[in-house]
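Collaborator request, handled under Task 6.
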Amino acid sequence: MPANIEIYRDIAIRAVESVFESEYHNTLGIPMPQIKILLPDDADYITGQYYIMIDDTWQIHLNFGKLPISFKEFEDEVKVLTRHEIEHYMCCPFDVITHLRMLKCIIDVYKKEFSHLDIDIQHACGSISNQAADIIVDTKNYLRNPQDTLVSEINWIKKYCCPIKLK
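Structure tokens returned to the collaborator:
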């Protein structure tokens, strides 16, 4: 375990608290996110893993993988990821019924327009729904925090998706 892991954990806690307090004024009705620092042998170490367990509390889980060298870069990323997960709670999908409606729409459109592709839509529709929700959430966050959101998206692409170096 890296020697400075507790420093990163403290930065994450402070950054999450800052978003909850200053941007949402502690009015969310959801618990503070559970924060975990993943180790190199974890399957999600490179990308991290960020999600909400709906259950009774809408518990946000922020599982940070490979950490940036810069504490400031990490703090900014924690804020962006916290906003992202909160906005899933706030706008898309706000509840299980909205999620189920999204799944049904995806399946209906597939059956009507794309069934010739022979995709296992029952298996794929959850991922498609999450990607559509992510676009809505990231757009909303971009409109509220354009610079932070844009920098985060560019960093994500550079780090995980782009085999060539972007300037």
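The cover message to the collaborator said: "The radius of gyration is 17 Å. The chain has a mean pLDDT of 90. Please let us know whether this matches your experimental observations."
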